[in-house]
User: Fold this.
Amino acid sequence: MIKKTALLSAGVAALVLANPALANTSDAGIDMLLDETDAAATEDAAEPDTPTMSFGTWGVDPELISADVDPGDDFFKYVNQKWLDANPLPAEYSRFGAFNLLGEKSTSDVKTLVDELVAKDSESLSYDERRIVNAYNAFLDTDAIEAAGLAPAQPYVDALASVASLSDLAMLWAEPGYSSPFGGFVNVDAKQPERYVTYLGFGGLGLPDRDYYLDETEKGREIQAKYKEYLALFLEAGGYADPAAAAEAVYAFEDKIARTISWDRTVSRNRDLTYNAVTSDELAAMAGEFPVEAMLDKLGWSTSPIYVVGSIPPTDEEIEELGLDEETLAKIGKGLPGMLELVNETPLATLQAWSIKEFLSDRAHILPARYDEAQFEFFGKLLRGTPEQRPRWKRAIAATEGALGELVGKSYVERYFPAENKAAMDELVANLRVAMAQSIDEIDWMGEATKEEARAKLNSFDPKIGYRDNLETYEGLEITPDNPIANEVASEAWQLADNASKLGGPIDRTEWFMTPQTVNAYYNPTKNEIVFPAAILQQPFFGIEADIAVNYGAIGGVIGHEIGHGFDDQGSKSDGTGKLRNWWTDEDRAAFDERGDKLVAQYSSFCPFDEGETCVNGRLTLGENIGDVGGLSLAYRAYKIATKDMDVPVIDGFTGDQRFFLAWAQVWRSAQREENYRLRLRTGAHSPEEYRVNGVVRNIDAWYEAFGVTPDDAMYIPPEERVRIW
Assistant:
């Protein structure tokens, strides 16, 4: 199933999964290299018919370069088309590329570790090993799941069906395992980063985005009709005599949320709009009859100094101060106040039906095959175009990591993460920081006062590489061998309690928001940290024996991307301590925004479908595009720093500069199905992979020089139109 989540931390995963509206609390979020929905397929492990990729002797296989494609016409195809032609998408994937290759390797490596434990005599297993085996086997045992039927879910369904009031339902929503239209988590206060606070948002939508409810096209109506059928199936499982009627009521509830309450994703990125500090009394005033204070107390959040709400419509004063135009205001729904109002006025029976549907749909993967298959048919086939469901064992590995990810990660790094990789990364990060410092010194659009703040922020960056030393042990989390629903609820309970326990305590700067075996990277603005898990530190990103130009073009570009997030359109709103404050002069911010607007225009002109009618959302993807363009520019500068005294050779006919750019393009080697592509254009913060190549290199002078690109080439941009930020 597609989960509309923000990947924040293992400690808040249950809250995020149960409450899918945390895009409304963007200040607490992290900026990832890859969208979570993009990365979902990387949980798969290699099958015999799964594509592989050769990296040659120096990091890029020259045999895969398309000599018949002019690099100045389409650099992505020049580097990747030959491989794409030879490797059609496997049936179980909606998208496949370099990230998936590493994701497969990571899952295969983890399965090796788990298989060794499963093969052991159960009496010889340690407590931690037994929990890993239990989590894996409970998910994998489909015969037991089929035999149990709906019985393991029935107590939760019965509890929801028997509530007599909204207050009673709210108390269930506050318990682990139950989905709620309201969500939250504890994280660092973006305006006072020395303390923890609770961030609050709302959800309620079953489709991936509010636009799916507003879509009046033939395809849009088809999706809506199929979704109602999906709702009816799970409501029938919940015991409804007329599931179709109940489905209509649930859909109407979600439709109201989409049309009047939800915010457009482009607006939800604006951190000036999504940090709204309120007291418990102010929340209670918004809530009317809804027992928000009792719910917060039951969740363990009542001691929060304040509550940060990501979706309160701006006041007239804020509209004027932020210069919000009518087009922007039209994208702002009623937000959390409106959601509270809607819940108060919605019939209890509808809210019960919505909650029952949510519980069963969220557990479809561990219910009998009928429900698991129905979920894949809708979210996998219809919305993403994926022909086949992933093998069960791969999903079992993912489920095990979802519950005990860092416990599994401990064994992973012991076996698969060489110490020399971390040392090499330390050097790369150091050179990228020098490159950023040089860039700050040299840019002419930023004044000295702002530069001093920028230098202070750069100097306080906290790079984290590989894994954290104090990996989580999940003390107190019990996992059974025969009840996967109980295991998921137990995991959510543990995560809820662990997350809530941060309130009132010191900031934990050792915490990671990804496991060591995750193929991704991120920047966290409230801690001003850049994080690179062990699993991404392999080819095509990094090879200890790879050419230095390739390493800088690949993992160097990733490092630059994450550093760049600290200085993108939203990350730049936090200072070196992680505090959300304006450290820019008005003139410098205007100059920065002018460059960002040019990048918005460039990317919005990329229109892959419908004769130019369906395009990249340049505003939604701006932060990631700044990360890519600025990050690769920084990586190139760092590469020159690292090779200053070297005689860089020509290898297989490619200069060092050419190999640098080839490596960046290879990182984004991938193909995807049209349905998945269209979904990502609607919902993803990252541009499609071909534009993460072509949209980036065309703004970097060195690329033109390396490949002799001229005005006769399709990708050529005149020098004065190239966007240079960092």
